[in-house]
Model the fold of this input.
Amino acid sequence: MQFTDANRVGLQLSEDIAQGDWRLLFIFRDAIEKVTVEDVMYVAETYYKPSNRTIGMFIPEESPERAEIPDAPNLISLVRGYKGKEAIAQGEEFDPSPENIEKRTNKVIFDDGLEIALLQKENRGDAVDARLVLRFGTLDDFRGTSAISNLTAPMLTKGTKNMTRQEIQDKLDALKATVNISGNLNNVTATIKTENQYLPEVIKLVGEILKEPSFPEEEFNKLVEEQLSGIESQMSEPQAVAGTLFSQLVRPYDKDDPRYTKTMEESIEAIKAVKLEDLKSFYKDFYGASDATMSVVGDFDEKAIGALAVKEFGAWESPKKFKRIVSAYKPTKPANEKLYTPDKANAMFFAGVTIPMGQNNDDYPAMVLGNFMLGGGFLNSRLATRIRQDEGLSYGVGSFFNARALDENAVFGAYAIYAPENVKKLEQAFKEEITKVVEKGFTAEELEAAKTGWLQSREVGRSNDRGLASTLESNLYYDRDMMWAKEFEEKVKNLTVEQVNAVMKKYLENPEKFVYVKAGDFEKS
Done:
């Protein structure tokens, strides 16, 4: 699977070149194929010695037993005359333009509610990416059940009526596939990556995982323990603590609303209250494919895969109908909060404001590009130049802008990781940069450079099959095609600096009305 990803191959080759020779990549692969159980046991017994461990308390011995590490083999001798194996399929030179993607995508809508987008293309290593999303229920159905719904999805891969968790993983390994299943309120997403020859079997396996889960009690107890330990490990981390409060302030839902952001203490309490029977009941009451969208991108047989998808999911009815949860705009209530997280070298900063804007809003293109210049473009953006390059206050700083496709409700925000003693300087620098954008705006030169960088990032994004599969699947749900993306990019391309500056001033005029959340060891600083 690594060889189907040019980025991973390039990065690993550079590492091997740094060690002496690019062919080490292939030599290491070849060596792995030859490893036996006996080899693994030998290494464990030779190197994993109790005397070499580091534990909580170290009591040195007078004559500790040490593992003798042999000298590394001679690199020149190792790579001399090396001949690689047969090259994997190279794939085609794919044009990632919206027009070409739309032209080559076959969309099928079935009477039972299943919608599928199929994009056949020759890929390196015959790789295929697929994505399936199931949607069910209404907002009122999920009141008081967010912890249950969040735990149900990861339980699906823990076992089926015919397979244990380990047998599922072994089969995925044999099929050279990775499958991830996640859930959030009223939807479940399954992502697949494999090779074309294994795709039919992987889809069948995903069908079994989704439709025939066994919910083993032992695996449930492990999952709960993992979830709790994960939350507990974050309870003193500045980024997690600040992020939780920031989410509560910019998305202020009532506690009985399933979209409410729980505190970590509330999350722990909610998870502990969940019983295995709750998951089984939730699955029985909601899961189905009556409102499902699916996409497949890569080297595969369109007709066969389309028919197989319908066979696996087409007749699987959802017990309750799906109704989209509408996200209504709520003006931000200004706040400035400081949270104490002791003994942490870094502090976290979030700032943000809600904006009445959706992706079909006339101001949306200008806001996207304005955010890109302010902080979304990272190293060459205004915030990064001022806060990172010029003043050295933060290593990681930037901004984000998230607008919904179907609702006029967006969030503009910014973040920074910094030393606690710089908290006042950082906040002041952020406010000053916002004020500069509002009062003086961007320059024409900044705008043209941003357009080039932003458009290139869009093209690169469409060159990634996983991201492309996600776009095609969401287009089905939003009732869009790739020409929406083309029109959107044309709007960005035609923006004037006056239009961008006017929009930024309209929505970011007063940084004092933002929400600010800072977490760190400020007492020590």
About this structure: The longest strand covers residues 394-403. The mean pLDDT is 93. Residues 129 and 466 are 6 Å apart (CA to CA).
